[in-house]
From TrEMBL:
Any one Pfam family match given in the protein's UniProt record, by short name: DUF6699
Ranges that cross the membrane: none
Organism of provenance: Armillaria luteobubalina
Bias kind Polar residues: ranges: 117-134
Domain DUF6699: 206-354
Protein name: DUF6699 domain-containing protein
Region (Disordered): 1-27, 53-96, 117-179
């Protein structure tokens, strides 16, 4: 019995010594002695079973297997752990958790859903979001179905703040917003007739030699060289029409050109009915051309001539223009120098440009060119 116990408990040390000395004893070729013990000779009171000389396990007959299913236990019970010393873990309370949370998917832009209001609330703007307790409420878009009631849409191109969902008629005494695109601080500007209007990038179709009075021979189209119709010359020269006077200027001479409407034209009837005077007509294109011709046909004074300077280049240029004009008309030498001679070679009226930066709605500038 002693040899058996020595073989069981003491053999481990001899085996370890033998294993450590095995590499050194292999060269000697010493056989290893193995001890075989029958299973019946092992006492039943052994507390553990040797396994690989380094690990121990509890007897399988006294402890349950590590994986065991208990059908009577609830699913929320914590898992059991098995070791040499069984430790009890505190009981964890169970929590009632929902598997999913339903919520409404709101669109990026909230959809306003108007509600019916009383007559006292209709005066206020309907652009405020509806609320029951002071908080804005927006409803997500609903899908169309056979049982759903469509929300009334706002009428197209209707800009008033008194629209309701029930489409009730609006009282006529309620104030309506007034929208104006006119600047009250801006001054009224005038536009010239298309026959006379000229700009920086375009010229007027008229071509009028101011040396002669306006006629079918002197007032022609610049491109076709045909006479301008009489009904075109009778149309208002400005838009809106001018009924008082029109002031025009030019950079080539210092005198302003004042245009006034023609005299009143009375209506006359057949028989003994008296002639009834009518209202003043607006300034027409013919009135403007006559005003330009009559202003430039005035003879200059000695003061205006001396203002150019004695013997200056300006006086010599005006003198040459005077000689060309008299030669062209075949007379007028005794008439002396006139204002038209300040234009030099450019005696052809080719348009009128309105200066928008000038006060009083703009000033019309005469533009002259060569014939």
């Amino acid at each position: 019995m002693t040899s058996i116990l020595r073989g069981l408990f003491g053999g481990g040390q001899s085996d370890q010594k033998q294993r450590h000395s095995l590499p050194h004893n292999r060269s000697r070729s010493v056989p290893v002695n193995y001890i075989f013990v029958s299973p019946s000779s092992i006492p039943p009171t052994a507390g553990s079973v040797m396994k690989n000389n380094s690990s121990y396990e509890a007897p399988m007959t006294t402890q349950p297997p590590p994986i065991r299913y208990y059908p009577d236990e609830p699913l929320t019970a914590p898992p059991r752990s098995y070791s040499f010393q069984q430790q009890r873990q505190p009981h964890r309370p169970t929590f009632q958790r929902s598997l999913s949370y339903k919520y409404d998917h709101y669109t990026q832009y909230p959809v306003y859903t108007p509600i019916a209001r009383t007559s006292s609330d209709s005066a206020t703007s309907s652009n405020r979001p509806t609320s029951s307790q002071g908080h804005a409420r927006y409803a997500p878009p609903r899908s169309a179905s056979s049982t759903s009631i469509p929300t009334p849409r706002r009428p197209v191109l209707k800009h008033n703040n008194t629209w309701d969902a029930d489409s009730r008629p609006v009282a006529m005494h309620q104030p309506r917003p007034h929208v104006s695109f006119l600047n009250p601080n801006s001054k009224d500007s005038i536009n010239m007739h298309p026959l006379l209007a000229a700009g920086r990038f375009h010229s007027a179709p008229i071509s009028y030699d101011v040396t002669f009075p306006p006629s079918s021979r002197s007032v022609v189209d610049r491109n076709t060289r045909t006479a301008v119709p009489t009904h075109t010359l009778a149309q208002p020269a400005t838009d809106p029409p001018t009924f008082t006077k029109l002031v025009m200027r030019c950079d080539k001479f210092p005198w302003p050109v004042l245009v006034s409407p023609s005299s009143k034209v009375g209506k006359f009837y057949l028989g003994n009915a008296p002639t009834i005077p009518t209202e003043t007509q607006p300034i027409s294109n013919m009135d403007l051309l006559y005003a330009v011709h009559s202003t430039l046909a005035i003879r200059v004074t000695h003061e205006e001539w001396d203002a150019l300077g004695n013997g200056s280049a300006a006086q010599r240029r005006v003198t040459r223009a005077y000689e060309r004009r008299c030669s062209k008309t075949g007379g007028g030498w005794d008439g002396g120098v006139r204002r038209i001679d300040w234009l030099g070679h450019k005696v052809q009226l080719i348009g009128i440009e309105v200066d928008r930066n000038a006060p009083a709605g703009g000033i019309a500038k005469l533009i002259f060119g060569r014939p």
